[in-house]
UniProtKB/TrEMBL annotation:
The lineage of its organism: Archaea, Methanobacteriati, Methanobacteriota, Stenosarchaea group, Methanomicrobia. It comes from Methanofollis formosanus. This is Thioredoxin domain-containing protein. GO terms for biological process: carbohydrate metabolic process. Residues 11-171 form the Spermatogenesis-associated protein 20-like TRX domain.
Amino acid sequence: MEGEKNRPKPNHLIGEKSPYLLQHAYNPVDWHPWGEEAFELARRENKPIFLSIGYSTCHWCHVMAEESFEDPEVAALLNETFVPIKVDREERPDIDAVYMEACLSLTGTGGWPLNVILTPERLPFYAATYIPKESRFGMTGLFELVPRIQKLWADQRKDVVASADEIRERLIRAQTGRKTGTEPGIDLIHRTYRELIRRYDQNNAGFDNAPKFPAPHTLQFLIRYWSETGEEKALDMAEETLRAIRRGGIFDQIGYGIHRYTTDAEWVVPHFEKMLYDQAFLALACTEAYEATREPFYREVADEVFEYVLRDLQSPDGAFYTAEDADSEGVEGKFYLWTAEDVEALLGPADTDLFVRAYGIGHSLKSEGPVPGVNILHQRVPVADLAEEFAMREEEVRTKLEDARKILLSARSHRPRPSVDDKVLLDWNAFMIAALARAGAVFDEERYIEAAETATGFLIGRMRDEDGKLFHRYRDGETAVPGMLNDYAALVWALTELYPATFDGTYLREARLLADRMIDLFWDEAEGGFFTSPRGGEALILRRKEAYDGAVPSGNSLALTALLTLYRLTGSTRYAQIASSGLGAFSTMASERPSSYAGYMDALLSALSHSYEVVVAGERDDKRTTQFLDVLKGYYLPYTSVVLRDRQNETVLNEVAPHTREMDLDRGKPVTYLCRGPACEQPVTDTSTLREVIAGERVPWGKDYMEQIMKRG
């Protein structure tokens, strides 16, 4: 009974499903979830809203919560002055994006935690990221800030509301004032490449200085740019960066998977949270690097990433959890840190010398936190140098290090783990499905394809309603939050990756249904491009439309890429027309800083490429059919589409890819049909001819490819 008396009283978040919101459910701050109930309370009590946005694996969100939101004095001040609202940015990226844009407009910077003061009508008039409890180092603390806002609201409310209205108008002008450009050409692609060269870190690889983000979708663009142009520097930048990431502290050297970013330029000191989307895009970049170079190293890294995801982030239902926290036992990164003494206790003196030399580990610490060059594992010395230094063969060094890794992994499994955010986000799951499907096809790894299919079944079976509309979040048996552009676009893209991995035509049917629904819900008929939120959805203060890349490609980039792929697979020129209009809608915006639009540039490169559209007519159990498919898999053809027309899928292909209807066997033998741009080749009936055609001289870029396919349509 005594324990019940001392237990804190929960606030209004106690009934939520979000792990982040539940982390704050016993704060003394009287948090409300986002919704009309909280807005009505603010109007009734004539109070501004204190909106705090974060996510469950955010280190500085934890810091602010522990310092301020768990403090009774701070809570009393916030409760007296505001109606406090908590939002999980991963659950509601639409809300986060709107108020992050406001923060950037007001302060010039952004990040999480994001704290915004709103009028009861949800209009922002103050914004900041982390706010300390007390003022320090030039940062105004809550004890000083909140009374100021309280006085301002009491004495100058009309001015505050007028200012908030002006801020909203500024955001709307910025959104609608972006001129729709003309359909972009190849020069914009070349400008992107040149800008990436200027930003490239010649000493450490990657782009810009600290903090260092992996940006694997940018690396994927560079690999594809090399494929189309032969520019070796593009491939070099991608390869050097992937190798630097794998060597660095940003990569979990013991359990695999990539951390969020590093705080230094050398890739050594990570921010330790692990996000599902980072795993997906790194695996995709490595898969494409393998396709382009056939270097086993890149397959090994992709396999390592998948090993981590399938071991630690896969739910019993086959879907994938969102992230792992950076902190454990109250210390950032503690789960991942080692000293030489830790290692020696597990390996013994002889093997410890090799391991600590290889991974740059030092001796005991006074602090338990991460210290570069002491306890953050990174591949400091190459295997060849270790072999010479320790008088071993290189293979012997690799074996010893791998044996040691497994011992440390087993020991680490007994440590208190960082918490897992176990909600399922549809778009992030679709990213992983796309990565698994692509890798499964490239590596002939059936278990990856099976994992992708199982996750797809979960999303379609549990995160889509009877009317075909998607939901963004699933947790603990509950689906919630209407799907946003990223959800539809990512799932269409994933299905277009899953189809060539399985040649199951039902995935093409699902992709077309979702693409058509996406167009109906999000397409801007007046100006082109896709809105982030659906038509008829919750009315926020701003309906955004964005092509700028963040940690992942924008929803518009994903949608345009998926539609171009779907056009090639199905022959539906509607998808090409919308993609063409969408590329034009953002061309002016993208031209301002092209390298920040790598996802958009990949879609543009897809539109301008002269890759083949291939239909193989033949039964999948016929050895000759398999030989045709194997020839195609032997080349890196990132924008080439392949349809398999067999008896099993004849009916569904007649429905969803009617252009293949007349493409049949040649006197009972498998045959391959190839088209490129506006022209088709003669049907190919033997693998040697197919190989000659595919390996033939590349058609140079000339007239706009989109113009050609419009004529063809």
